[in-house]
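Internal tracking record. Fields below are filled automatically when a chain is submitted to the structure queue. Please do not edit lines marked as system-generated. If the sequence contains nonstandard residues, flag them in the REMARKS field before resubmitting.
Queue: standard
Priority: normal
Entity type: single polypeptide chain
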Amino acid sequence: MKATIKTILYGFAFMMAGTALTACSDYLDRSEDSIVNPEDVYKNFYNFQGFTEELYYCIPNMNCSFWQSDYNWGEDELSVAGSTWFMGYKVDNGDFWGWQKEFDGWGACWMDGVGLTTEDDRMKKRMWPLVWYGIRKANIGLQHLNDMINCTEEEYNLIAGQLYFFRGWFHFMLMQSFGGLPYIDHVLSSSPSSVRLPRLSYQECADKAADDFRRAAVLLPLDWDDTIVGMNTLGKNRQRINKIMALGYLGKNYLWAGSPLMNYESTGVKTYNKEYCKKAAEAFAEMLFLCKAEGGKANYSLMDFSQYSDIFYTLNQGYKIPGGTEAIFMPPVYQAWGTYWSQSNQYTPGVLLDGSSNMFCPTANYVNYYGMANGLPIPDCTKTDIESGYDPRQPWKDRDPRFYHDIVYDGVKCLQGATQTREAHRYANLYTGGSYRDDYVGSRTGYLMYKFVPNTTNNDDRGQEKDHLINISYMRLADIYLMYAEAVTNGYDSPTASVPGFGKTAAEALNQVRDRAGVGRVATKYLTSTEMFMNEVRRERAVELAYEGHRFNDLRRWLLLTEYPYTIKTAIDFDRAGGFSTDDPEHNTVLNLTERVVVERKLNTKHYWLPLKRVDTNIYLEFDQNPGW
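SYSTEM-GENERATED OUTPUT FOLLOWS
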């Protein structure tokens, strides 16, 4: 399929005008008719929007940028043994240089590599080159705003709002990985000698990004469908930058700035910064107030749990983009068919794929975060917990409903139709010695992850899978509720506090996400202090946002990346007991359940920030390398 992104772009003739203006080496080879007059690029809305559209092509595609996807670098996922080219493997070994193409011969990491806005190749949508290009392009656009003389106020605001949003968002993407950087808010000269911008602290950068997000929020509409301009593409505007996206990232930017790691980098204090958390809470409250979920007009609400999969993937729908009413900010889709090969197959054991598999599986320690249906956590999966009702003899019984949606455990049916060669593998043999357990082509941990794939992901049922498109949101509404809960409780020092004028408490926001999944609400004992409540906030983020690319950054900003037990990846070993049933695997009994460490990370303080490229830190003295690298 030729680029699903075409469904969200105008396709104006001047879309690539920015590239044309900078490609000086080819200028003399062009015919007179092909030359774009710079004044024409910015003179009216449609031309200027064509210039602005290229910024959408600068959004990196983390889950479909290589033959296999690799973007979960916390303690959540384990790749098969021998897959040393993945960034996750390199993180396990403390080699954070691995994000850079100079240190990764395979080009497997979505953060670096070829980044082109002129092609629909999914493997050429990499973060580092695209966001720097996007920052410059946004600044060029802002510099020329007043050249758009033939426009209405609405048209002017739409262009300006998009440019401010993207400038803030591209900086945010860099800041969260590398810390405080120069905040580039003007067009830089091409002369290297004129570039001497110093690195700012994280919070200084965040303040500047906040200014851009706030400007965008003021200028942009709730929905482009409700604008005169948007009527031209009615029904195809869902991924255009709007007020909700700008407010969402305004809040996220402030919450990150107020988190322990960023506060420590900026002030030397390893705790939350209350003032930034209050600013974050207020931005989230402003945003939520505008959403349909809270009685507002913006069409954002939590999907019903019966439609939970629709947030992440679509099947047999002609590559329809998933997300529904919950997705807020998503990357464009290129070569939609590619997610079947780059992602869904990597969650399937080799016995269901004719022997070969570069699969990723959930770590047992991470699966332990999926507590019980009553909302209580599991302190230790090998020990009986009377309060929660967990029994290690029946470890799959009465678990959080999201456990059954996301995780494949022993006995679950994984092959649906007829088969001539795989009948013995119809059900997940994940017990010790089972056919699904293999360090090189199967599960290393005793679990599989099916959050983004249907249970027909195998070679025999492949005919049932048509138009399987996975698209992972950068931001969705459940994430907003959980960030609001975190921001409120740390800003106002109480899980029962709320933003004045909004009224929803931190605990109520978290419970709203649990209510959707049918999980018990936060127990009273976790509402007695901020510290106790944060234990449940962190666990809830782990479960609700599992495998969506959040965990690594969460552990970093909480200053937990180097702390036990977040440094280990474990597997479970067990035997099946008598009476094993494939009809009701949830209630099966197991024997001799143990949990063992497969990987233990030896990380230190330097690993809280990724290393910058040496070629860039050598440009000038003020652009220095991150500590320890």
